[in-house]
TrEMBL record:
Its EC number is 2.7.7.9. The gene is UGP1. Keywords: Nucleotidyltransferase, Transferase. This is UTP-glucose-1-phosphate uridylyltransferase.
Length: 564
């Protein structure tokens, strides 16, 4: 009966003594995982017997278990446990079958390490779902003073000696598709003809030249970005910088209905797989061999950030603070504004610093989570970590990062067929803060958080509000207060649309807020000040004339400038 639940291409060969509780292993050692297969045709029957026995024993064990409510609860719990065990067993069998489709020995070893890690993640997901594991809101408190150190209190000296122990890691697994670009997001041009990658290389090259050091630049790619990145970084061969790369894991998407892997084999289409979020950096550093490679170079600390955060540059004060306090993990936090209310925040949970993401918050407490008064900081995802500590927690299997289930769909092969609903089980690197010794946050200036997620952000970093200095964006000293809030509508979503509609970036040094919706085009030499709102109504167009100065105005309706 159960064999029909597993597609024929994933059915394992029969074997004895199967177990769904296999521990993880890592790529540096031989596997200690017993990948035994549980015969699919016996799993349902055996668990059905277990279910009936467990229910009978519950009723015979104690006369207290007499109410219908308790009866329903025990039956439901036993059924849930049985369902979890069956799903785990079938997933383990399916993963074993996938591993058999890998022909290259070295690839197979790495793939088995990845699938062991994935299975551990999947098993925890099933257990969390069965138990309804949620965070206890009553135990959540704002961080204690010692859990967040103000940047102003850090040592203020050029700790050059510590640079010899540092490597810079950029998360380079994302594509530029959300902004309408092809290939890695890090190659999108952001300023003066330079991409995110160009700017990062220039920053580290300048650091090495200035202090006479050799800080390596490490890229964590995904299977989506690795080939393109390998071609792109060839142009930096003449630069004074060592560029190293490794790949994060490639996990199988999970079919939502059957809880089985979407790929039919190791060679299955890319849409059947996913990179499992930046929380995978620990396992990937280890399994790829990059962690040991860096240790052999004398690297003890890594500074990691998103490739699209232009504010994430090496900071000697934070580096010195980390070394002197013997901290294994530092998370850079910055003050939360109304634009950041959905961002993850640091909390005190049973006396330990912990990251809280909005996805973990019960619905009735979401507004409290968004409160700037209670939760003052949010996570920039600029993380400093001790490399030997990373090795320790991976080898001890100590990391139990909160799982973020992400629902996606795989487009149907044939017209008229329904898309396939799938799950991606992801983790976040910030969630690891509670597994390291003396881990805490540093409340940094906003300038260290300058991400480019949308074309609204792109307009900001391309503007005259910033100048470029050795790959680093520096805000205009005449600017009073934080950077302006810019909201461009859906007509500006793709980079090509953005470039067509804004041929020349307006002067925004005195801008506080800009909202643009509809069919709007900007001429050259425009100056925006204060609060500017431009709304082109449906079936209408607004052309802002060249040289216009807009200050605290609302422009609405239609305005066309025709060439003649």
């Amino acid at each position: 009966m159960a064999s029909k639940a597993i597609p024929s291409h994933l059915r394992p060969q029969a074997a004895a003594n199967g177990s769904a509780e296999a521990p993880r292993h890592h790529g540096k050692t031989e596997s200690h995982v017993t990948r035994s297969s549980v015969p699919a045709h016996t799993s349902i029957l055996s668990h059905t017997i277990d279910l009936s026995l467990s229910v009978d024993l519950l009723f015979q064990a104690d006369d207290i278990v007499t109410t219908s409510t308790m009866h329903e609860l025990t039956v439901a719990q036993a059924f849930e446990n049985t369902s979890t065990n069956i799903a785990a067993t079938q997933m383990r069998n399916a993963l074993n079958s996938l591993a058999e489709t890998v022909t290259d020995a070295s690839q197979k070893k790495r793939f088995q390490a990845e699938t062991d890690n994935f299975f551990e993640l999947f098993r925890r997901y099933l257990n969390d779902r069965a138990k309804g594991n949620t965070i206890d809101w009553n135990k959540i408190n704002p961080p204690a003073p010692e859990q967040v150190v103000p940047y102003e209190k850090l040592p203020n000296s050029d700790a050059v000696d510590f640079l010899n122990k540092l490597a810079v890691v950029k998360l380079n697994g994302g594509l530029g598709t959300s902004m309408g670009c092809v290939g890695p997001k890090s190659v999108i041009e952001v300023r003066d003809g330079m991409s995110f990658l160009d700017l990062s290389v220039r920053q580290i090259e300048h650091l090495n030249e200035t202090y006479g050091v050799n800080v390596p630049f490490v890229l964590m790619n995904s299977f989506n970005t690795d080939d393109d990145t390998a071609s792109i970084i060839k142009k930096y061969q003449g630069h004074k910088i060592d560029i190293l790369t490794f790949n994060q894991s490639r996990y199988p998407r999970v079919i939502k209905d059957s809880l089985l892997p979407a790929p039919k084999s190791f060679q299955s289409q890319l849409s059947d797989w996913y990179p499992p979020g930046h929380g995978d950096v620990f396992e990937s550093l280890y399994n790829s061999g990059m962690l040991d490679q860096l240790l052999e170079r004398g690297v003890e600390i890594i500074f990691m950030s998103n490739a699209d955060n232009l504010g994430a540059v090496v900071d000697l004060r934070i580096l010195q603070h980390m070394v002197e306090t013997k901290s294994e993990y530092i998370m850079e936090l910055t003050d939360k504004t109304k634009a950041d209310v959905k961002g993850g925040t640091i909390i005190d949970y049973e006396g330990k610093a912990r990251l809280l993401e909005i996805a973990q918050v019960p619905k009735q407490y979401v507004n409290e989570f968004k409160s700037i008064k209670k939760f003052k900081y949010f996570n920039t995802n600029n993380i400093w970590m001790n490399l030997r500590a990373v090795k320790r927690v991976v080898e001890e299997n100590a990391l139990q990062l909160e799982i973020i289930p992400n629902e996606k769909s795989i487009p149907a092969d044939k017209k008229g067929e329904a898309d396939l609903s799938v799950l991606q089980l992801e983790t976040a690197v910030g969630a690891a803060i509670r597994f390291f010794k003396n881990a805490h946050g540093v409340n940094v200036p906003r300038r260290r958080f300058l991400p480019v997620k949308t074309c609204s952000d792109l307009m900001l970093v391309k503007s005259n509000l910033y100048t470029l200095s050795h790959g680093q964006l520096v805000i205009d000293p005449s600017r009073f207060g934080p950077a302006p809030l810019i909201k461009l509508g859906s007509d500006f979503k793709k980079v090509a649309q953005f470039q067509k509609r804004i041929g020349s970036i307006p002067n925004i040094v005195e801008l506080d807020h800009l909202t643009v919706t509809g069919d709007v085009n900007f001429g050259r030499g425009i100056v925006l000040k204060g609060t500017v709102i431009i709304v082109a109504t449906e079936n209408s167009t607004i052309d802002i004339p060249p040289g216009s100065i807009l200050e605290n105005v609302v422009v609405q309706g239609s305005l066309r400038i025709l060439e003649h």
